[in-house]
């Protein structure tokens, strides 16, 4: 299951992670976000130990969404060694997300 991150656990879960991280910037009211949610959860289970999948509610953590310049959701931000290395906006297929994660592992 994907970990929910916020200002309290963001550094520990994302910045200090020893494995690549995908941050799913989402909101509960967002239709495309809801379409992406089952894929995000599947990947979290499949990639456990190899990559970390986290979710960040943009309404609850506006400061972090702003820090990352998230203007529309869903936005997936890929982080390696604490630095953003890639991002996509919109609901994209699972295989496209897996490709981006595989490139980081």
Search tags:
alpha/beta, 5 strands, 4 helices, 5-stranded mixed beta sheet, 105 residues, Glutaredoxin
Describe what this molecule looks like in 3D.
The chain is an alpha/beta fold and 105 residues long. A 5-stranded mixed sheet has the order 1-3-2-4-5. It has a single domain (3-104), classed as 3-Layer(aba) Sandwich (Glutaredoxin), CATH 3.40.30. Helix content is 37%, strand content 26%.
With strands numbered from the N-terminus, the spatial order across the biggest sheet is 1-3-2-4-5
The second-level CATH architecture is: 3-Layer(aba) Sandwich
Number of domains: 1
State the CATH superfamily name. Answer: Glutaredoxin
Mean pLDDT: 96
Shape: globular
CATH class: Alpha Beta
Précis, in short:
With 105 residues, the protein is an alpha/beta fold. The chain contains 4 helices and 5 strands, in the order E-H-E-H-E-H-E-E-H.
List the helices and strands and how they pair.
Blueprint: E1 3-4, H1 10-15, E2 21-26, H2 31-46, E3 52-57, H3 62-67, E4 75-80, E5 83-89, H4 94-104
Parallel strand pairs: 1-3, 2-3
Antiparallel strand pairs: 2-4, 4-5
